[in-house]
Amino acid sequence: MLFAAALLAFPALPATSQDPNWPSFRGPRASGIAEGFALPTEFDVPSGKNVLWKTPIPGLAHSSPVVWGGKVFVTTAVRKEKEAELGSLFGSENYGSGDSVTDEGTHRFELWCLDATSGKVLWTRTAFEGPPAIKRHPKSTHANSTPAADAKHVLAFFGSEGLHCYDHDGKLLWSKSFGVLDAGAPNGVDDTTNFQWGFASSPVIHGERVLVQCDIQVGSFVTALELASGKELWRTPREEKPTWCTPAVAEHDGRAQVICNGYFHTGGYDLATGKELWKLVGGGDVPVPTPLVHEDVVFLTSAHGRLAPLRALLLTAEGEIPAHPAESEHRLWELPNAGIYMQTPLVYESELYACNDAGILACHDAATGERLYRERLGDGSYGFSASAVAGDAKLYFTAESGLVHVLAPGPEFARLATNDLGEPCLATPALSAGRLFFRTRSQLVAIGVRQ
């Protein structure tokens, strides 16, 4: 649905430029974009083509790597008794099952630091050791939250096992416990179950603050901490059930806000005080995607449930946004049944890309919402959980099977290559200085154009 007044004010959408650092989930501002460096089109991990290095990482985790100052940071959860198993992938016999994995015993919750050029392990730290407080989904892990870093700090978040802040040499600066963070099937969707699926929201560093979103069964909230000490600056309750969404920070027209996706509502909160600025009700249950901020618009989506909306909302939003799109001046556009469940969308140049967990990719005009094409990636036998990233006029879509589909951007579908990581991959890759860092089932792999 289009709104002429909003369209007149909507600017062109250039690709985002950024420095070599990739500090958090999907990079700076969660854009998923790294420009200024040549990126490879073709690579193959089994044969070694354009593989710069690969380093084994023990344990089971879906957290993404982050990069700062020539170092790569990644978290993992290592089961003491035997290797944890990954199941319920798209197309498998038990796909869609909500049952929790039980009786896994003691784990080590670890942060790893590697040299970005060589893959050498510089240090590892165990943030917590013991049985996880909350069970996980068979497709999930006990280390889903991506670290966050700046020039002096790196944060490792393990949900109920705490948020831990280190310096770049591995010295523990502070730890913060939020208590038990129980995430699973929202009570009220199916009151006959009490599934636990594991925590996944990642911390975000913005200036001297850390933003954390905790949507759980009881007592959901969003909070800001002092980066130097871990001291809580504000905490705002959210009337929410479990989500797995990472918050986004938007600065526009003199207003800084934290934006949280949600099941019952999406909301914008004042960065300084935590005061709710606006609320958009409705969407889909158990949402995962991060709000995608670009220019003066935030793109929002969720797809579990009957509504499955894909929305573009102006950052000038105020108050409660009416449920009916035609009644709000704050919506740029809204498309029912166009939302996606697992991935965060990607805006590159003038297009918005939304790939669902079955590998159906829809390309929309970002300014109007008009669908430009809809194509399938792969043959439908495998799914997609990782979010897309882009740079150097290339779009990278990573399948759970480990196949990476590389497309050319633009209003027409154009496949450039399909590449093999050699094993499953559910983590979103990081981009830094012309390299892609993929966290696969058993290792961290650096991909780049080999000289």
Report on the architecture of this protein.
- The protein has 451 residues and is an all-beta fold.
- It has a single domain (4-447), classed as YVTN repeat-like/Quinoprotein amine dehydrogenase (Methylamine Dehydrogenase, Chain H, 7 Propeller), CATH 2.130.10.
- The protein is 1% helix and 37% strand.
- The chain has one helix at residues 4-9, and strands at residues 51-56, 66-68, 71-79, 107-115, 121-130, 148-149, 154-157, 163-166, 172-176, 204-206, 209-214, 221-226, 232-237, 248-252, 255-260, 265-270, 276-281, 292-294, 297-301, 310-314, 319-321, 331-335, 346-348, 351-355, 360-365, 371-376, 389-391, 394-398, 403-407, 415-420, 430-432, 435-439, 443-447.
- The longest helix is centred in the N-terminal third of the chain and has 6 residues, at 4-9.
Write the CATH architecture name. 7 Propeller
Number of strands: 33
- Report mean pLDDT, rounded to a whole number: 93
Superfamily (CATH H level) name: YVTN repeat-like/Quinoprotein amine dehydrogenase
Quickly count the domains. 1
Unreliable residue stretches: 1-16
Helix-strand makeup class: mainly beta
Estimate the strand proportion. Answer: 35-45%
Q: Shape from CA axes?
A: globular
- Strand order within the widest beta sheet: 14-15-16-17-21
Number of helices: 1
Rg estimate, integer Å = 20 Å
Please describe the biggest sheet, giving its number of strands, its sense, and whether it closes into a barrel.
Answer: 5 strands, mixed
Helix content: under 10%
Assembly form of the protein: single chain
Q: What is the CATH T-level topology?
A: Methylamine Dehydrogenase, Chain H
The CA-CA distance between the termini, in Å, is 49 Å
CATH class: Mainly Beta
